[in-house]
Design goal:
Layout (H helix, E strand, L loop, with lengths): L1 H28 L3 H13 L8 H27 L4 H7 L6 H18 L4 H11 L6 H15 L14 H24 L9 H10 L1 H13 L5 H19 L2 H14 L2 H6 L1 H7 L9 H18 L4 H7 L1 H15 L5 H18 L4 H15 L8 H18 L2 H4 L5 H5 L4 H18 L6 H10 L1 H4 L13 H15 L9 H13 L7 H20 L13 H17 L3 H17 L3 H17 L4 H17 L5 H16 L4 H11 L14 H24 L6 H19 L7 H17 L5 H15 L5 H7 L8
Helix pairs in contact: 1-2, 1-3, 2-5, 3-5, 4-5, 5-6, 5-7, 6-8, 7-8, 7-10, 8-10, 8-11, 10-12, 11-12, 12-15, 14-17, 15-18, 17-18, 17-19, 18-19, 18-20, 20-23, 23-26, 24-27, 26-28, 27-28, 28-29, 28-30, 29-30, 30-31, 30-32, 31-32, 32-33, 32-34, 33-34, 34-35, 34-36, 35-36, 36-37, 36-38, ...
Length: 790
Amino acid sequence: MIADDDEKWLAAATAAVKQNAFYMQRAIDSNNLKDALKFSAQMLGELRTSKLSPHKYYELYIRASDELRSLEMFFRDETARGCSIAELYELVQHAGNILPRLYLLCTIGSVYIKSKDVAAKDILKDLVEMCRAVQHPLRGLFLRSYLAQVTRDKLPSIGSELEGDTETHMDALEFVLQNFTEMNKLWVRMQHQGPTREKEKREKERNELRDLVGKNLHILGQLEGVDLVVYRDTVLPRILEQVVNCKDELAQCYLMDCIIQVFPDDFHLQTLDVLLGACPQLQPSVDIKTVLSGLMERLSNYAASSVEALPNFLQVDAFSKLNHAIGKVVEAQVDLPASSSVTLYLFLLKFTLHVHSDRLDYVDQVLGSCVSQLSATGKLCDDKASKQIVAFLSAPLEKFNDVVTILKLTNYPRVMEYLDHDTNKAMAIIIIQSILKNDTRIATADEVDALFELIKGLIKDFDGLTDNDEIDEEDFQEEQNSVARLVHFLYNDDPEEMPKIIFRIRKHILTGGPKRLPLTIPPLVFSALKLIRRMRGGDENPFGDDTSTPQKILQLLTETVEVLADASASELALRLYLQCAQAANDCELETVAYEFFTKAYLLYEEEISDSKAQVTALRLIIGTLQRMRVFNVENRDILTHKATGYSAKLLKKPDQCRAVYECAHLYWAEEGENLKDGERVVLCLKRAQKIADAVQKMANASRGASSTGSVSLYVELLNKYLYFLEKGNPQVTGETIQSLAELIRSETKKAESGAGTFITSTLRYMEFQRQQEDGGMSEKYQKIKMEWFE
């Protein structure tokens, strides 16, 4: 209803303006001054209404002010035809109502100033004083806006056609400041016009009119006569006086922002203490973070765009002033939200990184100030504040692209302590990603300690949280994989420092729970093994102390993998034991290697019960043992006998067969004659064939079952015989191979076999080797009769 009434009143007032404007224009066309003034006053009388909302009143004002341009041109033409401008100035003051009279006075006043018949300062002073007659907030605000509009290009500033002496320039400045002061008072008073229940609506309407007041500051910013001295001594104090004294939240926030945006950067820098001194005096409800962040952002951009300006920042000690001002604001505004205070320090940090990127002590000081503020709040539960903290901590990372530099900031981890568990982990991921992206090397044990202090949210559980808590498995895996990749960036070529790094990494990683250890221990083990092999290639004793020898590090790995075995990761622990055994073999540490194999065997016997896992583990054991050269005959026989025994005890016969013929490799090594025992090789192969025979009998006994599986075992055995034949095992004869081949042939005739391709490929290979003319290999295959090959 109210909106409909507003539209009706606006339509009626607009129609009246149009009608009177029509008659005014007709009087102008006929050079009838009296009627022109009469109808223009009636037209302007429509602006006396109190029925319209500010938005609708603005539409009416625009239409009326547009019509006044024709009247202004008419006044100018009248003076050109010899009419006295002074008489016109007096004549318009006879209008019956004060509001139309003042609009007409402003219009003729602008022409009067342009004529130069009188000092501009006198007319300006007269106009700004007489406008005080209208004290209605809305009507007075638009009247003074019109005054600023028509006099804007007629102020006697430096460079204008009305330029005068210095005192005249100050008069123009005084005029703008006075008009700004009165407009601000009217704007602030608007909040009290009407019932309390409509206060929110009025504040919204006031916000729409703010540019009318701010226009004066834009004019001040463009006046050529306003240099640094004038701004510092006159303009800024007068404006700040109004800002502070009005005690209005909307006005203070907007006008402070206007000051920052309108006047030059250098002015702000040279008057920083004055501008900042006003901030604690603002109303507690003012969004001070927007004001200060805007100031710091502008100064940061100024520093980034002008290298010559950097000495000025140092000269005025901008950092200390900003830091002190933010502290005062935070102290004065007790109810300031944590997110707002963090935002203030975020922009101060960005300012510091732009202007004083070489001063880590300044950066650390900002972090410390933020810690002091957060100490009163405890851990942040506000998502907005947490996001601001993440942005706050990310700023130095993005600037330096070097985590090593971040580790020098003592207050950095103190800020992270105020993050909740999830946000702390997110920040830790950001730090790790920075290291991986920028290929940053963490090269000392102390740096490792500092880094793990930052990412401890990923390494261990926070207070009150356990691994049993519900977590997203995919996210958890990704987090721990990031930690695993990180371990490989903790590296130093110095053989004395690298063992210290390994020990520190172990200390931190072992604080993780059983869910983390299987993901984080392996990279630690492989990093240590890499160090051990590098030690082996160095001097005989390059380390100077016993704690950094390969044997000591392997002992450390023994204890480390034991922890993993206790964390229900037996299969992984077995793999790592075997890797460590290979490293001990490379370093010719027989006792240590034997110990690792012993632990691997114990795990196999006691912890690994799944048949598939047993098969995989046994293949790893056999493969690793086959490459070991450090063992004496006795130790090797013991380990080999154990592995062979495990093979015969596998649950499934085919798995037994394959494991047993794989054990044949344990008796035949290329590197030395003492590791070649042809009889035992053949013994393993024959034992495997017996198991394959048993599988074949079971297949034949099963009605309707195919013998594919057992035939495949025979073919695999045939390939093993061929391998050892080529390697020169004298115990492998052509008759033995011929016998096995005939067995394969007979079995394939009994039942359709899916191993046909495998058999055909093997036979073709044998025929190919027989036809070779190089002598050695061909002679070995000539011993095998191939008449049965079709």
